[in-house]
Structures are given as C-alpha cells and as structure tokens.
C-alpha cells in the first residue's frame, strides 16, 4: 500500500484483498506494509464483519470485541427483537 491518506475503509479493504491470496499471511502483510501485526489482524477481522456493523467499527463507535458479540447474536431473532427475558432458558 503505497498511497497515502487512505481512509480506514480503504485500508481495511486492501489488507483483506492481500490476505485473500494464499501466499499473503497476516505476518507477511504486516512486514511488507510496515504496520504492526495486530493492526493488520484487526483490519482483516473488521473487513469480515457484516455490512451493518463494519461502519460502526471503522467510525470507532464500536470496538471489534463489541462487534464480535453482535455478530454472535446476528441470527437470533429473539435477541434482536429484545424479547428475551433473563429467566428464559
């Protein structure tokens, strides 16, 4: 990535594209771009988030951990509607 002033979304997308190639591991991307491995790993994780969640992570209003929790409940209609009670099993 040689272009300067990439947006967060562009940077996340670029790491995800590189990681799609079998010979490009997270560590190799980090070495070649000069970015810390955890930054690259988090960017790729962000790229894999649902379209509804990703912009909130990129904007900083959700952490990756929070987004991960939302993703866990994504297909649970009861949880999404708020109709779960604490006593339900």
SSE diagram, text form:
Blueprint: H1 8-19, H2 26-33, H3 37-47, H4 54-59, H5 64-72, H6 77-81
Structure description:
The chain has one domain (1-63). The protein is 57% helix and 0% strand. The model has no long low-confidence stretch (mean pLDDT 85). Helix 1 (8-19) crosses helix 3 and helix 2 crosses helix 3 (37-47). The chain is mainly alpha-helical and 89 residues long. It is built from six helices and no strands.
Q: Biggest β-sheet: count, sense, barrel?
A: none
Number of distinct beta strands: 0
Low-confidence stretches: none
Specify the helix fraction band.
Answer: 55-70%
Order of SSEs: HHHHHH
**Regarding quaternary structure, how should these chains be classified?**
single chain
User: What is the beta-strand fraction?
Assistant: under 5%
Structural class: mainly alpha
Distance between the termini: 49 Å
Counting structural domains, the number is 1
Q: Rg from C-alpha positions?
A: 16 Å
Give the CA-based shape. Answer: elongated
Helical stretch count? 6
Averaging pLDDT over every residue, what do you get? 85
Compact summary:
This protein is mostly helical and 89 residues long. It has helices at 8-19, 26-33, 37-47, 54-59, 64-72, 77-81.
Please name the defining characteristics of this protein.
mainly alpha; 6 helices; single chain; elongated; 89 residues
